[in-house]
Specification:
The protein is of the alpha/beta class. About 45% of the residues lie in helices and about 20% in strands. The protein binds S-adenosylmethionine. One of its GO terms (molecular function) is demethylmenaquinone methyltransferase activity.
């Protein structure tokens, strides 16, 4: 499915999010707060849109994804970025290899997200950071109703006009509704062994950015 949507992935995102993705992505990069020369893993990186700001800032970013279609679009656009094929639940990296790991709009797509959170913990150095950006659940009930209508009616209708594989966007709407809320995801992050998990709601909770730290010593 991701191979299919790859060619028009970024432009469709901008349309369906009504331009919000740019602001969300900026906040994620600030939360990661990587310094030039540090090593960051951008997991489920797709076409590398979420990886570009790190490369632009002199951070060593590895863009990892299991869709070769997405990686090919990314590599042709940004040959300077390291694109690596890999499965989030069985990462092709050594223990403690990165200063930080981040995943934007990807964890919800992984079949076993809790396993991916444990793999992310393994490949980050003790004291290193996790930042997860994912669709979540609006906290204000009237806003939740408007958003739910948008997801189930408007979004698939717009996708039919602009996307190469509109069915993928029906999946998008359904997977967002089925995803745990902010506290539910925080519990998964804690359960995988991360510490000090906190989150910030964006656009009233349409997106949540969770951050956590790998403990310095096991136990
Ligand atoms: C919605 S895209 C997000 C791409 C990018 N992070 C962004 O912000 O634009 C989700 C990505 O998750 C990838 N993905 C899903 N399951 C995966 C897995 N088990 N391992 C690696 N990548 C996975 C898909 O191939 C897809 O490229």
């Amino acid at each position: 499915m991701f191979d299919d949507v790859a060619p028009r992935y970024d432009v469709v995102n901008d349309i369906l999010s009504l331009g919000q993705t740019r602001r969300w992505r900026k906040i994620v990069v600030e939360a990661v707060g990587a310094a030039p020369g540090q090593h960051v893993l951008d997991l489920a990186a797709g076409t590398g849109t979420s990886s570009e700001p790190y490369a632009d800032a002199g951070v060593h970013v590895v863009a990892c994804d299991f869709s070769l279609g997405m990686l090919q679009v990314g590599k042709s656009r940004r040959p300077d970025i390291d694109f690596v094929a890999g499965d989030a639940t069985n990462l092709p990296f050594a223990d403690d290899a990165f200063d930080a790991v981040t995943i934007s709009f990807g964890l919800r797509n992984v079949n076993e997200p809790q396993k991916a959170l444990a793999e992310m913990l393994r490949v980050v150095k003790p004291g290193g950071k996790l930042v997860v950006a994912e669709f979540s659940h609006p906290t204000f009930a009237p806003w939740r109703t408007v958003y739910s209508e948008y997801l189930m009616r408007a979004l698939p209708a717009i996708a039919t006009k602009v996307a190469s594989n509109p069915t993928a966007y029906v999946y998008l709407a359904e997977s967002i509704r089925a995803w745990p809320n902010q506290d539910g995801l925080a519990a998964w992050i804690d359960g995988a062994g991360w510490r000090d998990c906190r989150y910030r709601n964006l656009t009233g909770g349409i997106v949540a950015v969770h951050r956590a730290v790998k403990p310095l010593a096991a136990g």
